[in-house]
Inverse folding.
């Protein structure tokens, strides 16, 4: 990434578990010239081949000229695929094309020259390609690192993140503050013990990493911390000292008050627990930590410096999208609801007594299981492409009941004619979503329903169903053409809740 930006080229990234459809939906819009890829991905001590799906996706990216393969195995095993017009080379071959005597130089461009392309969740179609400029990104990140997080030269920062999440870009920028980065590949619950070649399951893997590498600032998801809490992990009781640790950062989803208390109980009262919130759209945070303010359980400490953050009722340009219609798409996505005001789309509440912020979850159709944002349209596209002969329609929403910190993805399907949703078909749908998108996209529940609710202008009604199955009252059904069908979703939600209680 640093080499790319030094040339004035634009960087974008997808995580290794991204499926073919999801890759093509993103990369076909931005037309990349060169692609760097792993040949395998390792997670939970299991290795998965990446090259076959990457090669299949590249056949649909017409602008691509070359692919460089970073191999986890002997590079002779990563030979070019036959009959491919795309130039493939190993990383060693790529490096051999350069000259050791070549002096490193940094091209000079206007301050807001594009540096990154990130992607929206794809709720209303193909993911939008969000362009971020160099100086705006760097200033935001340095502000958050130095002023909001008290990061100093010589500190060591680790953030458990995929390269596709904005937090990867956020933590790379910390190099500008004189910090040392710790990068990690794999599951946070596996650890390779000294003298062993294979990793083993270990819920103390990350605390051990903190001790081993003397990490000072540790970033992760709220889900990770809640898993530690559920497993009653207590690192210090097993001999870890964690004396280097100054701060823990949590984002991706709201951090429960009980998890605040757990973190301070096991990591000590001297650390700063920074629950933060921001977004891909701004590649920065608007709710941040503050080193000179107290931490209150369940709250983000303060709004970010220089950010006009407000909570509005239901009534109540440094970013663009790639492409000729990018600016119009950007305005429609973020300025349409409240003209002249950028609308993020999260429910929040300010605590007037402390100045802190409570994050209450998404207010639109974006799905957010375990802090991973994606759009329902990606699921719909997979069903349309693979199950049009048996699935007539579908509705994909998130379920998050009161006091729950994580979201469950539920997929409702209306079957075609006399077809029925069998257990075998459910497994096939889940496997196809896994293969074409990613493991994180797979719905926990796939349920047959009699009808899908629509508005009068023929849009699927996701928010009302999400509210119903999450136990929240729907205030009005006036805009729903077939509002009578919501009664079925209410019955399903009630039945499901009764089953869970049993």
């Amino acid at each position: 990434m640093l080499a790319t930006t030094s040339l004035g080229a634009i960087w974008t990234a997808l995580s290794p578990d991204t499926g073919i459809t999801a890759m093509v939906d993103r990369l076909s819009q931005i037309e990349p010239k060169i692609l760097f890829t792993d040949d395998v991905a390792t997670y939970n001590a299991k290795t998965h081949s990446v090259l076959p799906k990457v090669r299949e996706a590249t056949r649909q990216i017409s602008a691509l000229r070359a692919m460089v393969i970073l191999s986890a195995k002997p590079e002779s095993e990563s030979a070019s695929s036959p009959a491919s017009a795309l130039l493939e080379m190993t990383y060693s071959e790529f490096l051999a094309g350069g000259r050791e005597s070549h002096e490193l130089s940094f091209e000079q461009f206007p301050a807001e020259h594009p540096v990154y392309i990130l992607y929206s969740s794809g709720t209303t179609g193909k993911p939008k390609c969000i362009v971020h400029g160099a100086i705006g990104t760097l200033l935001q990140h340095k502000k958050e690192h130095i002023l909001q997080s008290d990061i100093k030269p010589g500190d060591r920062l680790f953030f458990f993140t995929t390269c596709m999440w904005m937090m990867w870009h956020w933590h790379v920028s910390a190099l500008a503050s004189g910090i040392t980065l710790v990068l990690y590949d794999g599951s946070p619950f596996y650890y390779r013990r000294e003298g062993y070649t294979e990793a083993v399951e270990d819920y103390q893997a990350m605390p051990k990493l903190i001790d081993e590498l003397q990490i000072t600032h540790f970033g992760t998801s709220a889900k990770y911390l809640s898993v530690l809490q559920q497993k009653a992990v207590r690192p210090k009781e097993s001999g870890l000292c964690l004396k280097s640790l100054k701060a823990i950062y949590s984002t991706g989803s709201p951090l429960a008050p009980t998890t605040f208390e757990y973190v301070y109980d096991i990591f000590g009262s001297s650390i700063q627990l920074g629950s933060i919130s921001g977004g891909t759209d701004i590649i920065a945070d608007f709710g941040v930590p503050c080193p000179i303010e107290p931490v209150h359980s369940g709250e983000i400490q303060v709004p970010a410096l220089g950010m006009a953050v407000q909570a509005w009722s239901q009534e109540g340009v440094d970013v663009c999208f790639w492409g000729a219609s990018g600016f119009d798409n950007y305005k429609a996505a973020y300025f349409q609801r409240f003209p002249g005001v950028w609308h993020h789309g999260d429910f929040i509440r300010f605590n007037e007594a402390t100045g802190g912020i409570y994050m209450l979850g998404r207010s639109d159709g974006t799905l957010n299981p375990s802090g991973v944002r994606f759009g329902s349209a990606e699921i719909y596209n997979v069903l349309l492409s693979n199950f049009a002969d048996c699935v007539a329609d579908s509705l994909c929403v998130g379920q998050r009941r009161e006091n729950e910190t994580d979201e469950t993805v539920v997929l409702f399907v209306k079957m075609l004619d006399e077809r029925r949703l069998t257990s075998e078909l459910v497994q096939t749908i889940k496997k196809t979503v896994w293969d074409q998108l990613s493991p994180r996209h797979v719905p926990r529940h796939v349920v047959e329903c009699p009808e899908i609710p629509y508005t009068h202008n023929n849009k699927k009604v996701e928010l009302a169903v999400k509210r119903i199955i999450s136990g929240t009252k729907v205030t009005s059904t006036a805009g729903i053409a077939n509002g009578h069908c919501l009664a079925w979703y209410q019955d399903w939600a009630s039945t499901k809740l009764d089953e869970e209680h049993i």
